[in-house]
Amino acid sequence: MPERAFTDAELDAAVEALSDPERFAAATALIQRAAPQLQKLLAIALREGGWFEDTHEHALQVAALTDDPNERVAAVRTLMAEEARLGMMVGVAVGYELARELEIDDN
Q1: Are the CB atoms for 51 and 86 separated by under 8 Å?
Q2: HSE-up of 70 (CA within 13 Å, CB side)?
Q3: Residues 31 and 38 sit within 8 Å (Cβ to Cβ)
Q4: Which end of the chain is more exposed for a tag (fewer CB within 10 A), N or C?
Q5: Which whole-number Å values give the CA distances from 31 to 25, 69, 78, in the listed order?
Q6: Gap between the Cα atoms of 3 and 23, Å rounded
Q7: Cα–Cα–Cα angle for 89, 91, 95, nearest 5°?
Q8: pLDDT tens sequence across 28-59
């Protein structure tokens, strides 16, 4: 099945559709059912991609060992925000591939 590029309008419409409470509830229920497997997949993707290797460990050490309490809090906040963003981006990629796999199985 060939990939197709989505227009900005199609992407906007899809995001808007997900803001419908009923539609989002269905998506949430699906994710809850698949959460344990998806969590394993996300961990594999992060590990295989090298996302949490030396750079992450260094940032963790800097955050934990900073003497100034305000700087430490700022470093921890930054680290948590970066981890969340990275997890979401990789999670979206995993979800995208899951959707493609489900489409393949449907055909």
Answers
A1: yes
A2: 0
A3: yes
A4: C
A5: 10, 38, 27
A6: 25
A7: 120
A8: 888 888 888 888 888 888 788 777 778 888 88
> How would DSSP label each residue in 43-58?
HHHHHHTTTTSHHHHH
Q: What is the 8-class DSSP label of residue 5?
A: P
Write down the residue that tokens 């394993």 correspond to.
40
Whose structure tokens read 């090298």? 50
Give the percent of the chain with pLDDT over 70.
Answer: 94
The closest alpha carbon to 89, from 62, 32, 51, belongs to 51
pTM, rounded to two decimals: 0.59
Residue appearing with tokens 């796999």 = 101
Place of tokens 């998506």: 27
b/e map 79-94, b = 16+ CB within 10 Å: beeebeeebeebbeeb
Helix (H) or strand (E) run with residue 71 in it: helix 69-106
